[in-house]
Write a structure and sequence with these properties.
single chain, 99 residues, mainly alpha, 2 domains, 4 helices
């Protein structure tokens, strides 16, 4: 169980690199970011920061389409089915999400 941290504040950044720069420059105590970018930053700035692995619950993703555009919906569904059936989807998940 994580203990409560008193007087802590959180901030959002549009770009992970901006948060990492603030971490390196002492304006932040920690950055929470997706694993793969975190590994890249930790490698690039290995003298200044360290990577710490931990897990949250899995995230859900969605695709937003214009309401009523059944042609586009069908095309997206067909493309997703093709990616799943030929193994590309699982390869991408393994490479970019599960690493």
């Amino acid at each position: 169980m994580i203990e409560e941290i008193k007087d802590a504040t959180a901030a959002q950044y549009n770009k992970g690199v901006d948060a990492v720069n603030d971490l390196i420059n002492g304006r932040l105590d920690a950055v929470i970011i997706d694993k793969n970018p975190a590994l890249v930053f930790a490698d690039k700035f290995s003298d200044e920061i360290q990577y710490m692995d931990f897990h949250y619950d899995p995230e859900d993703y969605a695709i937003a389409l214009p309401k009523g555009n059944e042609t586009l919906q069908s095309q997206v569904n067909d493309a997703l089915e093709e990616l799943k059936s030929d193994g590309t989807f699982d390869e991408l998940v393994s490479q970019y999400i599960e690493n």
